[in-house]
């Protein structure tokens, strides 16, 4: 029997060749990008929100930044990538997509980078999709840049199912990361300054509206 995920995927419109090639490259090179159902859902949420500016933590090869820019033709964004090799790939793809005027790419550790380098002082939307064990620190550093009414999206909140099982069943090398993500999730869901929903889309997405 066909699973709901594959059934949904079968109804997603085919992407332009440029994007399909990016998806295939990421798959072949084992570079993590958003699952197709997750990115399509995120884009629909963003279309409803209509942010004029987006800050992304974790560019990878620039796939999600390009998808967001194409879905939000009036928006500008800043995206940060720690890995130099992936940053170079992202820069190349953004240039090929002719989006250099709207996507600011920065290379460096998001926890150390100087926010004075950013195009803007505030962003209507913040998208966190980087080191899972550091989500709390990313949130603490960048949530002040999101104004009241802005939205913070966090991907990979299920971490391939590891956050749903007993910590003793998690591989030892991943336990600290999983424990940090679990603690962050509980903290976020109970944060009085945000209205947060946890959705089982892709690898799990939280959507937090700042009061």
UniProtKB/TrEMBL annotation:
InterPro entries: Cation-dep_OMT, SAM-dependent_MTases_sf, SAM_O-MeTrfase, TrmR_methyltr
Keyword Transferase: yes
Swiss-Prot/TrEMBL catalytic activity: 5-hydroxyuridine(34) in tRNA + S-adenosyl-L-methionine = 5-methoxyuridine(34) in tRNA + S-adenosyl-L-homocysteine + H(+)
Listed Pfam families: Methyltransf_3
Role of this protein: Catalyzes the methylation of 5-hydroxyuridine (ho5U) to form 5-methoxyuridine (mo5U) at position 34 in tRNAs.
Cross-referenced PANTHER family: CAFFEOYL-COA O-METHYLTRANSFERASE 3-RELATED, O-METHYLTRANSFERASE-RELATED
Protein name, as recorded: tRNA 5-hydroxyuridine methyltransferase
């Amino acid at each position: 029997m066909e699973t709901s995920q594959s059934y949904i995927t079968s109804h997603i419109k085919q992407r332009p060749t440029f994007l399909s090639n990016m998806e295939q490259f990421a798959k072949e090179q084992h570079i993590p990008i958003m699952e197709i159902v997750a990115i399509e859902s995120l884009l629909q949420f963003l279309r409803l929100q209509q942010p004029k500016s987006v800050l992304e933590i974790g560019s990878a090869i620039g796939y999600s930044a390009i998808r967001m820019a194409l879905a939000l033709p009036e928006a500008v964004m800043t995206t940060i990538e720690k890995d130099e090799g992936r940053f170079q790939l992202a820069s190349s793809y953004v240039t090929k997509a002719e989006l250099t005027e709207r996507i600011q790419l920065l290379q460096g550790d998001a926890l150390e980078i100087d926010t004075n380098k950013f195009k803007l002082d505030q962003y209507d939307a913040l998208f966190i999709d980087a080191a899972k064990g550091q989500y709390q620190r990313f949130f603490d550093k960048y949530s002040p840049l999101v104004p009241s009414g802005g939205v913070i999206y966090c991907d990979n909140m299920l971490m391939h199912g590891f956050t749903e099982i007993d910590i003793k069943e998690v591989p030892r090398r991943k336990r600290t990361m999983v424990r940090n993500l679990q603690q962050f999730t509980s903290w976020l869901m109970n944060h009085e300054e945000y209205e947060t929903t946890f959705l089982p889309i892709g690898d799990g997405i939280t959507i937090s509206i700042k009061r």
